[in-house]
Amino acid sequence: MTLTADSAAGTADGTPGLLSRDDFRAALENAIKGREAKNASFSKAWADGELTREHFARWAENHFHYVGPFADYLGYIYGNTPDKFTDAKDFTLQNMYEEELADIRHTDLLIRFGEACGTTRERIEDPENMNAVTRGLQSWCYAVAMREHFVVATAALVVGLESQVPSIYKKQIIPLRESYGFTEDEIEFFDLHITSDEVHGERGYQIVLDHADTPELQQRCLQYVRWGAEMRFSYTRALYDTYVAPTL
Predict the structure, then answer these.
(1) What's residue 14's pLDDT?
(2) pTM for the complete prediction?
(3) Among 35, 48, 50, 54, which is most exposed with the fewest C-beta within 10 angstroms?
């Protein structure tokens, strides 16, 4: 697909035109750049071997309340997707299934890691143990999933948030083994998501590229990818500010 005069330079009234598939893909990727959660302070301290198991316990208690409802977020997107978009509905349903039913619930693997860090299932599941920024991220995910066009919600949650996971965990899983001394069984949560979320993220990109078919939808998708990346970066930074910085 080649750029038309309108898509390259915008329309006569100055609003953006329809981007080509390649240009839209590049714009989606650029919307995350500079906002990657892998570069937030908590992620850097993790990768540099500066954290303790107590810090990881607090991470697990927060992360559960962000990723635990992910199938719920997807359920709202599924319900908002018209029946004619079979490919998008099938992907969302498969993603929900893999979160909740395939082999083992992803949240059970997260709890296993948290328990290895010294916290308990009861503490992890208790919403009193997440901080205010985590609560804000969870609420934002619910609001986007419930209220936005299905392709915008897919852009926000799958491209802006989920597609970042492999790059984050690839940096973190090595020090979990080599610096922090966790077993393979204890860190299965991370190993699983490096593989599964790489597939989910790419499929999310394809759905957005296929179905954001107006300039307005493309621009709203880009906005929500930026916001999603900013939300995850802020969430990750807040973990450092709340739990790590006071212990230094």
Answers:
(1) 67
(2) 0.90
(3) 48
